[in-house]
Amino acid sequence: MVLLGAPGVGKGTVGDMLAEKFGIPKISTGDIFRKAIAEKTPLGRKVNELTGKGELVPDDITVAIVKERIAKEDCKNGFIMDGFPRTIHQAEELDKLLKGMNLRLDAVVNIFLPKEEIIRRISLRRTCGNCSMIYNLNFSPPKKDGVCDKCGGLLYQRDDEKEETVLNRLSIYEKQTAPLIKYYEGRSRLINVTGETSKEIFERLIEIL
Ligand code: AMP
């Protein structure tokens, strides 16, 4: 399954809920890049500047990390992609990778929200520095201020969640990623879904699926 949608619509949170429900891993290219940056690996050093500005990482680097990740044992019964593909070229490469694994896309989920709502939500978002769990200070605050309920890690606001960068990410999304909705129309089962909260979006999706 692929989760499409602009930054800030809750792909990560909905992806976590789906992963738990179906017992398959959620793969977030954004999480993989953030981890590499935190650990200062060669990949992290290469992508640090781009991700900080909200620019896309080049396709060849991104496809290579996805290829490596989905070759792992836990992906053999399927997986949920969060934040990949983000360009037509990545989508074509994913098609090839899936073919090679004898898997097919069950569904492509397009989560959509109005732009003002996206900006509002992103400004309220906090991420766990340890396990990447996402909180919304309004809808789903942590029990203890600044601390992750799940692992006790410290919560932080991502650099790319500052308003100026968010606007840049939204315009990159419109230009490079939104065309994927057309790409998948007719090719895969495309599900369009919206909702007030990630929980509501998840529940609607489960009904549809
Ligand atoms: P995300 O957490 O999905 O919003 O990703 C954070 C950042 O990682 C993005 O703003 C990009 O810089 C980079 N990134 C994540 N996924 C991709 C992708 N599929 N292609 C290119 N860059 C990506």
Q: What oligomerization state is this entry in?
A: single chain
**Helicity range of the residues?**
40-55%
Radius of gyration: 16 Å
Poorly predicted runs of 5 or more residues: none
What share of residues are in beta strands? 5-15%
* Structure ligands: adenosine monophosphate
CATH top level class name: Alpha Beta
The chain-level mean pLDDT equals 94
Question: What is the number of independent domains?
Answer: 1
Q: What shape does the CA trace take?
A: globular
Descriptive overview:
The protein has 209 residues and is α/β, with parallel strands linked by helices. The protein has a single domain (2-113, 169-208), classed as P-loop containing nucleotide triphosphate hydrolases (Rossmann fold). Helix content is 48%, strand content 12%. The protein has nine helices and eight strands. The strands form two sheets. It has a five-stranded parallel sheet with strand order 2-3-1-4-8, sandwiched between helices. It has a three-stranded antiparallel sheet with strand order 6-5-7. Helix 1 (11-22) packs across helix 9 (198-208). It binds adenosine monophosphate. Adenosine monophosphate binds next to helix 2 and helix 3.
In short:
The chain has nine helices and eight strands. The protein is of the alpha/beta class.
